[in-house]
Queue: 4 jobs
Job 1
Amino acid sequence: GRLIRPIDEPTAAHINHDWRMIHTEALLRSPELRQQKWLIERRELELVAAKNLLLPQFDLGAAYRWVGVGDDLINADRNGLNFPADGSTAFDELTEGNFQEASFLFNFQMPVGYRRELAGVRFAQLNLVRAKSQLEDMELNTSHLLTTSVRNLDFNYQSAQTHFNRWKASQAEVDSVRVLYERGKSTLDLVLDAQRRRSQAQIDYYRALSEYNKSIAEVQFRKGSLLEYNNIHLAEGPWADKAY
């Protein structure tokens, strides 16, 4: 049975935004557009990786190592026998360095025809173009939504002004008809009818004022600053030790 309403009175001040500023802000702060831009960067990296497959591959390697050979791996007592004598150990040969070897590696690969590689490059290019086209459509849609919200803001403000003038005129009409009624020059039904028009003008004014304030919030929402408009700020606190 209680009526719950905001504690703040609705504003009746005329709010006029700079279109270029709020349009740039909407394009920069939109989370959907930012996600799409990150997707475009991902597609660009995929294209670079696909083009790398068209390049020939040349590998060069070198190795040098000591080799231990013998009948056993290791003995507790060093017997001084070297390979190929019976009872020689691989550990002794390894530490003495009698057997050493070096190797060099050259490997050259180049695809023939590039059919699979060119198909991969073309596929990456199509994905990149598709992502950019989607970004353009999303930016255009964001601009249209922002334009509609600004137009509603101006329309509701003009509507509130019109209904306020109606209220003012109806109040003057009520005062004049009341004076005429008190002097016996008017009837009661004319007074009641004037009061009815004044009440309807009041209702229309406050309804238009409410729509105007909702339009203000809608503009803030479309340009990505609704939290700041409501004095809500987000900050990241310290992480847990396991997160670090």
Job 2
Amino acid sequence: MLRSLKNLARYTIQSTDAEVGGVKDLLFDDASWKVRYVVAGTGSWLSGRRVLLSMAVFGEPHARDRLFPAEVSNSEIASSPSLDTDPPVSRQQEIDLHEHYRWLPYWRSARPKEGEAEAARRDPHLRAMRKVLGYRVHASDGEIGHVDDFIADDEDWTIRYLVVDTTNHWPGGEVLISPDWCEGFDWTSRKAILTVPRHKVKDSPEFRPDQPVNREVEERLYDYYGRPRYWAK
């Protein structure tokens, strides 16, 4: 199922013991476009401390109760390594975190080899969703809007779309853009650069946040852009 990450950030995390706290942010990998971690708030329970939890421990979000269940205990969370939850997060911090919870690492190598310590000191690919919201979006021939949300597949938490708000540039609303149609991000200038022209985005199918992004919506979008469908690969 495709879900809004901005909406998910309003959920409460449910551990195997009790409610832990709210989803404060989500960290995604800008190379693979996979959400890797939830930044979990703990409220007064741990004096407002924030911790990182791997997406691998989470089950299906419960929309009615706005609960996000996690297969992790409160005692594990309380004794987890202290981390700076704002990116960049170092690979060594990730290793310590995974060893504490006995999670399988999503990366191939384990501890950095000799001579790789500095390269592994920070992982430049992990980005905080809340920091990217509001980034200006540039088509191949000019600015068109800003990033308003991300849509991810809750099967593997791959981000499938950027939600781009275009209302400051022309009448309309929001549109969906696949990360595959992004040339890249300029992190210094806080902008995303697309490979499609302005007129193409302007006339693209409008995104309705009150309606689900289903396969019919996706097929219409990919047909419009004439791009190969990711689900047919």
Job 3
Amino acid sequence: GLTAALHAAERGCHVTVVTKGALADTNTRWAQGGIAAVPAPDDTVASHVADTVTAGVGLNDSAAVQTLVSEGPDRIAELVRRGVAFDRAGDGDFARGLEAAHARPRVLHAGGDATGAAIQAALGAAVRSAGIEMREHTTVRELVVEGGRVVGVEVETDGVRRRLTADAVILATGGAGQLYSHTTNPVSATGDGIAAALRAGAAVADLEFVQFHPCLLYTSDAAD
């Protein structure tokens, strides 16, 4: 969401970011894992695509996988430009880890297991310095639809509702983990963004997939 806001602002758009918590209250901030990309000379996009499809046991959207993998190096470079300090090896190159279903070391971390926090901090600072309007602790209640298209949002701040008009609305609302009695998702992951999109007539897919984030194993006799 913050990356989309930055790209729009850089193209001359007046951008407003609405978040029902503080700017840093995101799923991203809690992401402890790394980012898989293919900037190493001995790695290839085809290998990364194959590993991703294997990990997805064939349920992947092939076009999405191709886009994700082929644009990975450029997105890493963009994050670096925006201030994300990925961990480096002794020679100054990225420190790449071998994890999960990857056939080659291509996973980048920042601050060890604080990758998400590093990305959140950098993008948050970039958004604030770009002069983008921020509306924190503000909830999107409805998408405003006129003539078959979305023309804004109805938001609520401290119990007061108002309408924000817009030429375009981007939803980056996270998941719905808090709909369950037990979840590791942040408290903001309540699915209200998806529900607003449904009420406005959007099509949704694959709602059965829920990310457990951060990963953990809880047992009744666990010490922590």
Job 4
Amino acid sequence: MFIETCTLSLRLEAIEAVGSRIGIFRFTSVAGGALPAAAPGAHLNLEISPGLVRQYSLVEIDPSATQYAIAVLRQPEGRGGSMALHEQARIGTVYKASVPRNHFPLSAEPGEVALFGGGIGVTPLLTMYRALKARRESVRLFYWARAEGDFLFRHELEQDPGVRLFTTGTAPTPRLDDVLADIPATTRLYCCGPEAMLAAFAAATKDRPAELLNVERFAP
């Protein structure tokens, strides 16, 4: 995998808890002023410590381009990046980061869109959902998480008629293929989540037009 060079110097400005295991980390430029612009679906590389670089999708797109925000799930069983941020990050710390890049772009073409997110993989889809709503496009977001406390922005999203939240720790929970069965074949689809979810998405969409299918793996 090509890893973008960390050439930006970012200052950690704020940490916000938005779930039982999720924190939003907000960064601004050390030099002040605007940062390189980013679009929905974009990610950046963050050097958490020397030799420890991780990729994070932006969870918000700042129109003024004065800050970047990422959502990080605390994962004790992970590779160390999330725990380092949750346990060691301090306001004012300066980090190196890459310019945002986008391998999961949102199409500019009009038409109905459905977004499917699993766990922290929903992060880039949230920026897409907000952008499509701002464009007054027809869009729906289907979001699965293990428990209510694991949903990003749960209180905001559960009030939105275009969003469906599914808690996998309770039964019955609609499956991905059940939801897809009610979505027209002409709908543009985006999916990001764990491997099991992406495998289910691939199986359920194998007869749909390939040009309408967009997937990102939320994994190294």
